[in-house]
C-alpha cells in the first residue's frame, strides 16, 4: 500500500513538472497581454536644452558628469571625442558641435528637438511589444534605451553595459531629410524615420537573446534563423504590416509576392541553399540596394524573406509547435522538409 501511494505521488509530481514545462511554452500571445514598462532616458533632450553660454554650459556639464556619468561617458567618448571628465575640453568641443553649420549639426539639433518633442507613440509601441516578448520569453530582459544625438554616427547601438541600447534620434528624422545625403545610401534612408526605432530596438534585442541553433553555416541555416527572428517580431508587433517587419516598402513586398516562385526556383537551381561561402550568404541576407544573386530589380534580403515564408509554412503545418520549440530546432533541412513550403 505504501509503495502504491509512493508511485501515485511520483506520478503526480511528474505530471506537475510536465504541466509546468508546457505552461511556460506559448504559441499564441493573448491580445490583452499587459504592456511592459520600457525605460527611455532622454539624454538627447538634456544635451539639446543645455545653456549656450560657456560658463553656464561648463557648470551644467560638470553636474551631468556627476548625476549621469554613464550616458555622459558614452556621449563624450563616442560623439564629441573627449574624456567626459575633462569638462573644459568637453565644453569647448560641445559648443562647436551644437553650433556647427559646416556639416549642418546646428540645424539637425533643432530639427531633432522638434521631431522628438513627443515620443508617446514610440513609448506605447515599445511597451506593448516588450510586454508580449516577456509573456513568451520571461527570461529575456527589457533593455533600457538611451536616446542621444550622435552626429550621424549610428542608428541603434548595443551598449557594453548589459543589453541596453543607444538610439541616435538625429538618425531618424525622415527618409528625405536633406542632411542624410552625404552620410547614408539610398537603401538605408527608407529606415531613417522615427517609426523604425521600435523595429530596430526589437530586432536587436532578439539578436541578443537568440542565436542560430545550427552549426552548419549554410545559406539555408542563415535564412531559417533570420526567418524565425522575423516570425518572432510579427508575434510581438501584431498590428504592424509584414513589410514593416522586414523593412520593405509596399512595392518591394509586392515584388517579392509576385516573383516568389521564381525566386525559390533560382535558389534551388543554383544550389545556393547549401552554399557556405560568406559572400554568397551575405548577398542574400544583408541589407543593400538589391539581392545581387537574384536580380538588380529585386529588393535586398530575399534570403530573409524566403526564410520567413518557410517558417510561416512550417508553423501552419505544425499547430502544436510552440515559439520555444520553433527556436530550438537545429536541423534546417528537416525544418525545410517538414514546412511543406511550395510557392
Give the termini separation. Answer: 61 Å
Largest sheet: 4 strands, mixed
Strand order of the largest sheet: 1-2-4-3
Q: Report the average pLDDT across residues.
A: 90
The oligomerization state is single chain
Q: Bin the helical content.
A: 55-70%
Per the principal axes of the C-alpha atoms, what is the gross shape? globular
Low-confidence regions: 1-23
Instruction: Report the structural category.
Output: mainly alpha
Give the tally of β-strands. 4
Radius of gyration: 24 Å
Structure at a glance:
Helix content is 56%, strand content 4%. It is built from 17 helices and four strands.
Explain the overall architecture:
This protein is mostly helical and 343 residues long. 56% of the residues lie in helices and 4% in strands. The chain has a 4-stranded mixed β-sheet with strand order 1-2-4-3. β3 and β4 form a beta hairpin.
List keywords for this structure.
343 residues; mainly alpha; four-stranded mixed beta sheet; 17 helices; 4 strands; 56% helix; 4% strand; disordered N terminus
SSE layout and pairing:
Layout: H1 2-23, E1 40-42, H2 43-48, H3 54-67, H4 69-80, H5 87-98, H6 105-115, H7 120-136, E2 145-148, E3 156-158, E4 165-168, H8 186-189, H9 196-209, H10 219-236, H11 242-246, H12 250-258, H13 260-269, H14 278-285, H15 302-317, H16 323-328, H17 332-339
Parallel strand pairs: 1-2, 2-4
Antiparallel strand pairs: 3-4
Amino acid at each position: 500500500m505504501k509503495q502504491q501511494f509512493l508511485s501515485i505521488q511520483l506520478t503526480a509530481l511528474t505530471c506537475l513538472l510536465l504541466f509546468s514545462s508546457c505552461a511556460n511554452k506559448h504559441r499564441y500571445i493573448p491580445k490583452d497581454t499587459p504592456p511592459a514598462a520600457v525605460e527611455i532616458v532622454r539624454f538627447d533632450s538634456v544635451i539639446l536644452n543645455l545653456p549656450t553660454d560657456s560658463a553656464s554650459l561648463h557648470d551644467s556639464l560638470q553636474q551631468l558628469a556627476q548625476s549621469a556619468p554613464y550616458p555622459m561617458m558614452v556621449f563624450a567618448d563616442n560623439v564629441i571625442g573627449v574624456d567626459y571628465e575633462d569638462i573644459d575640453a568637453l565644453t569647448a568641443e560641445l559648443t562647436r558641435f551644437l553650433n556647427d553649420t559646416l556639416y549642418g549639426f546646428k540645424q539637425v539639433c533643432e530639427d531633432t528637438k522638434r521631431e522628438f518633442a513627443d515620443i508617446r507613440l514610440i513609448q506605447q509601441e515599445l511597451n506593448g511589444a516588450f510586454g508580449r516578448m516577456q509573456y513568451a520569453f520571461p527570461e529575456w530582459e527589457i533593455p533600457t534605451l538611451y536616446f542621444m544625438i550622435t552626429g550621424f554616427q549610428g542608428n541603434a547601438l548595443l551598449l557594453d553595459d548589459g543589453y541596453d541600447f543607444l538610439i541616435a534620434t538625429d538618425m531618424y528624422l525622415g527618409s528625405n531629410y536633406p542632411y542624410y545625403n552625404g552620410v547614408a545610401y539610398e537603401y538605408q534612408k527608407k529606415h531613417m524615420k522615427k517609426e523604425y526605432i521600435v523595429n530596430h530596438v526589437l530586432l536587436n534585442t532578439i539578436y541578443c537573446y537568440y542565436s542560430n541553433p545550427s552549426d552548419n553555416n549554410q545559406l539555408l541555416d542563415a535564412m531559417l534563423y533570420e526567418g524565425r527572428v522575423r516570425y518572432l517580431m510579427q508575434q510581438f508587433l501584431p498590428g504592424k504590416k509584414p513589410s514593416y517587419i522586414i523593412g520593405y516598402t509596399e512595392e518591394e513586398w509586392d515584388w517579392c509576392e509576385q516573383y516568389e516562385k521564381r525566386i525559390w526556383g533560382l535558389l534551388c537551381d543554383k544550389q545556393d541553399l547549401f552554399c557556405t561561402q560568406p559572400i554568397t550568404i551575405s548577398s542574400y541576407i544583408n541589407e543593400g540596394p538589391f539581392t545581387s544573386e537574384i536580380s538588380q530589380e529585386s529588393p535586398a534580403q530575399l534570403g530573409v524573406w524566403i526564410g520567413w515564408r518557410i517558417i510561416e509554412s512550417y508553423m501552419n503545418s505544425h499547430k502544436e509547435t510552440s515559439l520555444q520549440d520553433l527556436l530550438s530546432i537545429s536541423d534546417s533541412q528537416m525544418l525545410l522538409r517538414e514546412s511543406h513550403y511550395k510557392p
